[in-house]
Design brief:
Two copies of one chain form a homodimer.
Chain A (H helix, E strand, L loop, with lengths): L5 H11 L8 E3 L6 E3 L5 E11 L10 H19 L2 E11 L5 H17 L3 E9 L4 E11 L14 E5 L4 H4 L7 H8 L5 H7 L5 E5 L3 H12 L2 E5 L7 H7 L7 H5 L5 E6 L4 H10 L4 E8 L3 E5 L5 E2 L10 H5 L8
């Protein structure tokens, strides 16, 4: 029998830190594919996202932060659909010479996030690559026909958002306060809020690219426009302090990205129920504007003046920024 | 509304080449996650695999070959489980300056493979990266409880393999005959054979790391050993011609990897049925040895002498080879 390749030692070490058994897992990692058994009457919800060194994380991230974030950004998509997480598959790109301890740290963080949200890692893959990357596919379940889509907003609905905005974007700066840096490195997927809001809101999207851009996606999918006010944006105390010295104190909240909050469309008559649902999910829900006929996102400044929203966090441009290769090109 | 980021233009261009609708697809790409509706009585089968520039493909690959291979290697895992493919999610890592035409070519090849096997691409992600990579998650279905696992082989069962071995490995050489190069670039997942064999064989694994290594995996999962003979290995005419000048003419077939054939355990009394099933799937099935009590893989040479099987294709070492960084280290 051939000697065990380093690939398999690595996989075993990585796998040991992960929860591998869970609801519906007939066969987990180790075979050609996982076998999963879902219940009748449920729809499966599936999403994939990657975190890449130099784009979504840098040397300031602890390995465990990388693993946590790789899974959390996927769970945020499940949260927006109103789904509960079930399973994840993890594909690693690993540069030559990566210390085993670094990968073990990634696995620990990913495992911690998986356990916190009670999902099983059911499969994976590892390959050589030039930079460390973690690509996660997350599978979740939602009652048949009850997934919350982006396309349900109607003119007159309220634009509302969970939690606070812009913390993660300000958390990218070297020397950012710990509370902000933590939101960048350890985002909290709003799963409980997403599930509680599922029967109440008309549409939802998670804020990953930046509020203005993701609101634009929701508007486009719904065939409506939106008008929001910067004075209404929910900002944390840490954000307010950090933004004091900035030329545009609202830019990070409007377009910084990586917030992983939920942006929803709520019929005015459902607002109290929506607030209560979000509260059951552990987050406040703040109304920041209204959906209107037409298209596009209009932003109104603190003194009523029109504001041009920033372009948002573009994952294709991000590396240029993160690696200091000068101004990103359009 | 912020201007559309280049990310979204790229996604749209990529997506246009892919089949997006299919069985059970309630919501495809464009929302936070796909929504999929499976039938009761079926198990979901899920697997993830990546192809990375310089590891699994190089400059000699047409972009469409890259896309084809990225999906095909995943479908090979579904084939080994006896599953039929349903859906795929595609995560792209894209270097700065990648021509749009290259990505469109990748999408075309991926789309061609998806259409050939009647599956829908239901989601995806794109991020900046230092090398081009395509990570595919494939979802398939199998009748409840009927997935073919690696752990079912028993002493006395026959070791059998579909198609021919080693073609893809010899196809890696510069100037390799077209028939061999094609097997490297456009592997054919044995889906029809896998489904036909599902009720007949006791265990299965797909040959991706090399025959000896994957047989070792099957043996370990089953708690048995295996004895195979190099004289029995199914070799194509093109392989025999190309291998004539090599010091070890069997090395590529035993350990070259990337064959994407199915290696199965067959009870002797089921052999005729297994051959017929494979034939219905369009491939021959060749008996190459027997499972035995104990553990490990024993290889017997053409004159009955013991052969040390090669270590197999290690995806963590492969890049060192492909990029010409000298001898790979253990």
């Amino acid at each position: 029998m051939p000697p065990a390749a380093p690939e398999f030692a690595l996989i075993e070490r990585f796998t040991r830190a992960l929860p591998l058994r869970g609801e519906g897992v007939v066969v987990g990692p180790g075979d050609d594919a996982a076998v999963l058994r879902l219940r009748p009457g449920e729809d499966l919800v599936a999403t994939v996202d990657a975190v890449v060194e130099g784009v979504h994380f840098d040397a300031r991230f602890a390995p465990a932060d990388v693993g946590w974030k790789a899974l959390a950004v996927n769970l945020s998509d499940l949260a927006a659909m109103g789904a509960r997480p079930l399973h994840a598959l993890v594909a690693l790109g690993v540069p030559a010479g990566t210390p085993g301890a670094r990968l073990a740290g990634v696995a620990r963080g990913l495992g911690a996030c998986a356990r916190a949200h009670r999902l099983a890692v059911v499969g994976g893959n590892v390959t050589r690559a030039r930079e460390l990357s973690v690509t996660v596919t997350a599978l979740g379940a939602v009652a048949e026909g009850r997934a919350v889509l982006r396309g349900g907003a109607r003119p007159g609905d309220l634009v509302a958002v969970t939690g606070t905005l812009g913390d993660a974007a300000l958390g990218r700066s070297p020397g950012a306060p710990a509370a902000l840096a933590r939101r960048q490195r350890r985002p909290t997927p709003r799963l409980a809020a997403g599930r509680a809001l599922a029967g109440v809101v008309r549409a939802a999207v998670d804020v990953s690219d930046g509020l203005a851009q993701d609101l634009g996606h929701l508007c486009a999918a719904s065939g409506v426009g939106a008008r929001i006010g910067v004075a209404e944006l929910p900002l944390s105390a840490a954000y307010r302090r950090a933004a004091r010295g900035l030329a545009d104190p609202f830019a990070a909240a409007l377009g910084g990205g990586e917030d992983y909050e939920l942006l929803v469309a709520v019929a005015p008559r459902s607002l109290a129920r929506a607030r209560a649902a979000a509260a059951r999910g552990g987050v406040p829900l703040t109304v920041i504007g209204r959906f209107v006929r037409g298209g596009g996102v209009e932003v109104v400044g603190a003194r009523g003046e029109p504001v041009t929203p920033p372009a948002g966090h573009d994952h294709l441009r991000a590396q240029g920024r993160a690696l200091g290769r000068g101004r990103p090109r359009r």
